[in-house]
Here is the input.
Amino acid sequence: MTGLVLRRLALIPLVLLVASAVVFCLPRLLGGNVTRSVIRARSLASAPDPAAEARLAAELGLDRPLRDQYLAWLSGAVRGDLGRSFTTRAAVGPEVVEAAGVSATLAVLGLAVALAVAVPTGVLAADRPGGVGDRAVDRVGAMALAVPEFVVGPVLVLLVAVWAGWLPAIGWGSPAQAVLPVVTLAFFPAALAARLVRAETRVALAHPSTTTAVAKGLSRRRVLAVHVLPRSLTAVLAEAGPFLAGTLGGAVVVEVVFGIPGLGSLLADAIGSRDLPTVQAGLVVVIAVALVLTLATEVAGRALNPRLR
Amino acid sequence: MRWLIAAALLVIAVIEWPVEATDFANRLDPPSGTHLLGTDQLGRDVLARVLGGVRWTVGLGAGAVAVSVVVGVVVGLATGWLDGTRARVVATLVQSVVDLVVALPALLVGLVTAAVLGPGLVPAVTAIVLMGWAPFARLAHRLTVSVRGEDWVLAARSLGAGPVWILRVHVLPAIAGPVREALTARFVGAMLTLAGLSFLGLGVQPPTPEWGAMLAEGRTYAFVAPWLVAAPAAAVVLVSALAGRGRVR
Here is the structure.
């Protein structure tokens, strides 16, 4: 197990190197006119004159050979300097780190809420077939799976913030501002997890070990919590990679909807204005996080399920 | 029923709706007799724009899935059929690429594509196809492997039929059922990814009446004109609910 973890850890920098080369070089090769987009983002001028474009290209280093540009960026990156934004000229590194912190908070809260709702619901739904929980997983779950974040978010804003006026519609920082984004983000993972947990709990309930626990005279609650629950979480954990990735994708939309200064909205803005340094830094961070998380979920899955070892 | 819905959507998509027609005197008008779903900030009829959006949101989603299914099934048939050591190595390689692509979140790929090619319709559709072929390739591969040894395939072989003929005439019809089943779920996924990218401003750009882009535009006016949010949101939910249950991300 340690060997596997070390091998996979060693692979991460390699994958990151390839990924960084791709996200650095491809936009410069295929991305059309970067300087024009940057000028447009800075000054709203729709047709800048060629001299200004050439000056900007020189200023941003876009006139140098691609290989030199990449090596310069890479040597900076390994020393922790991710360059300066094309549009604002601010240092990209601190900006990305700060945004990533916000996104991480949002994603962790979203996942925590999703699991807090989904795990008990899934277990109880399997324990009482046809009961309230079971039907809720079927009906609400099906709806939650069909409705994307970019619909849930604006509709929640409309209902809760605009009409009822209970919570602020946008912003980030106070607990009240966190409620709507976290609920929006939790919607899809909660529905997915509830289904996975329910399916696995059904299997676990039929397992001989459950019969033994019941025959020992344990209370129903104890049987469910101690004997059934651990067996019901392997699928959720095994799916945790795509799950977290999905949360990541959902988080981009949620951040844009609620005006949250996270990595997702930073990336969406930077891509829109062709601010390549910010895009590169943001994507490399996202990919690194995804790689580490995938490894972590695999380790957790093995720790929880002895048969995988 | 499904065909009826598809036919209705096709008719709506083909019709030229007056999506750009502005009624400047009646901007941000609530739903009324003249404008059933109200008007937007430029006085454009929201109903016309929602109907006009079928061509973009539903049409592009369906188009992207159509390309994905053709590419995916061809790849899956080929890797499932290939025999011999060297061919097996190629097939295994292709299938590990498939596994990798299936594991990537669609919106992240959309972000990367938009980062590489710049925001727009073409990059967004490219991203969906880049993602979309893999699940079909995986499915077709598994199904092909499972029917490859059947007696009727061996019979066709012993009659001297070539691989392309066998795959087209004997294998493809046998695997078509499950592929067709997967089609609607994947269509919903493709449509939602496209609308999501457009919502983020990275896909189809305004003033094109794509539902995700309309939602993003309408959000600015949510306080004074909630129908600008409600109408495209309802359209997206309606179509994904009609097309199939749930999405696969």
